[in-house]
């Protein structure tokens, strides 16, 4: 089961998930200029980042928006990046945040769990309902060893607009979604005690974190918001169960680490590696 593989990688290499939100403007000019197009430069940048980090991180989250923005060539870079992650024996999370009526969701599931854009996990938005938005993906979870992370409580300030709206019993919407994800997760628990049905919970709003985690004991968490968005390791530690059960994403913090080192642009991949190790150790120190 993919959750067991992720659990093992977290045990061995730590909780860091490298976010490949690779905006062309992030690439050092001396590196970018070597390639014939933006998309080819981005793929080669990703390759260097993966080569420099795969022994100290557990997975890679590829944010599709950065590739879609570059059209067909960008999607080729997206596809090649996912294939390279697989070739290195690592786990990929396609950050696609899809959610639609079931027939359309079936096509999204096929599109992101098979073929050119095949990933190990996808992020989903359950707002259109469990049966419509999530169910079509669950066939692949059961039969093809895939996993999902459903948005439960996001890391951005705007999360409060809707996710914190309370029902007549005072339960916020994000907790209701979390409870539904826990029920689904219970049907698919791996040997590690966690399910391949996971949830996205941001690192940036910690007060309710423990209460939410207590309601989602079988759910593997994808935690964005560390670093650039201000999320702290001490907050993240409250979401862990026996030190595992979550991966923590950092995108800009790792990709742009070279900007914090003198002459870093000549060795951006090693700067990314040092930041990934620093982050790994920061999280471990708070467990
Ligand atoms: O609640 C959420 C869900 C997803 N994201 C995504 O994570 C990364 C964060 O990037 P940083 O540069 O580390 O801030 C990005 O891909 C978002 O789309 C999130 O931030 N919050």
TrEMBL record:
<dbReference type="GO" id="GO:0044205">
    <property type="term" value="P:'de novo' UMP biosynthetic process"/>
</dbReference>
<dbReference type="Pfam" id="PF00215">
    <property type="entry name" value="OMPdecase"/>
</dbReference>
<keyword id="KW-0665">Pyrimidine biosynthesis</keyword>
<dbReference type="GO" id="GO:0004590">
    <property type="term" value="F:orotidine-5'-phosphate decarboxylase activity"/>
</dbReference>
<feature type="domain" description="Orotidine 5'-phosphate decarboxylase">
    <location>
        <begin position="15"/>
        <end position="267"/>
    </location>
</feature>
<dbReference type="GO" id="GO:0006207">
    <property type="term" value="P:'de novo' pyrimidine nucleobase biosynthetic process"/>
</dbReference>
<comment type="pathway">
    <text>Pyrimidine metabolism; UMP biosynthesis via de novo pathway; UMP from orotate: step 2/2.</text>
</comment>
<protein>
    <recommendedName>
        <fullName>Orotidine 5'-phosphate decarboxylase</fullName>
        <ecNumber>4.1.1.23</ecNumber>
    </recommendedName>
</protein>
<keyword id="KW-0210">Decarboxylase</keyword>
<feature type="active site" description="Proton donor">
    <location>
        <position position="97"/>
    </location>
</feature>
<dbReference type="InterPro" id="IPR011995">
    <property type="entry name" value="OMPdecase_type-2"/>
</dbReference>
<dbReference type="InterPro" id="IPR013785">
    <property type="entry name" value="Aldolase_TIM"/>
</dbReference>
<keyword id="KW-0456">Lyase</keyword>
<dbReference type="InterPro" id="IPR001754">
    <property type="entry name" value="OMPdeCOase_dom"/>
</dbReference>
<comment type="similarity">
    <text>Belongs to the OMP decarboxylase family. Type 2 subfamily.</text>
</comment>
<dbReference type="InterPro" id="IPR011060">
    <property type="entry name" value="RibuloseP-bd_barrel"/>
</dbReference>
């Amino acid at each position: 089961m993919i959750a067991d593989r992720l659990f093992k990688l977290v045990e061995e290499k730590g909780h860091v998930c490298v976010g490949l939100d690779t905006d062309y403007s992030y690439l050092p000019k001396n590196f970018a200029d070597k390639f014939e197009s933006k998309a080819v430069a981005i793929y080669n940048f990703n390759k260097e980042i993966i080569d420099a980090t795969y022994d100290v991180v557990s997975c890679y989250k590829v944010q599709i928006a950065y590739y879609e923005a570059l059209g067909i060539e960008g999607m080729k870079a997206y596809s090649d990046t996912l294939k390279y992650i697989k070739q290195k024996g690592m786990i990929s999370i396609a950050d696609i945040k899809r959610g639609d009526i079931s027939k359309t969701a079936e096509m999204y599931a096929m599109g992101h769990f098979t073929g050119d854009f095949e990933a190990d996990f996808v992020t989903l938005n359950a707002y259109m309902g469990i049966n419509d938005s999530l169910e079509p993906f669950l066939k692949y979870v059961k039969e093809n060893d895939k996993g999902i992370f459903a948005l439960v409580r996001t890391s951005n300030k705007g999360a409060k607009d809707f996710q914190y709206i309370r029902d007549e019993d005072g339960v916020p919407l994000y907790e209701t979604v979390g409870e539904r994800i826990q029920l689904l997760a219970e049907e698919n628990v791996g040997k590690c005690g966690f399910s391949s049905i996971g949830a996205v919970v941001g690192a940036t709003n910690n007060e309710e974190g423990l209460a939410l985690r207590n309601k989602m004991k079988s759910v593997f968490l994808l935690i964005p918001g560390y670093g650039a968005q201000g999320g702290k390791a001490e907050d993240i530690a409250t979401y862990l169960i026996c030190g595992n059960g979550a991966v923590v994403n950092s995108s800009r913090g790792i990709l742009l680490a070279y900007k914090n080192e003198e002459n870093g642009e000549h060795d951006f991949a090693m700067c990314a590696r040092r930041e990934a190790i620093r982050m790994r150790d920061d999280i471990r120190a708070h467990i």
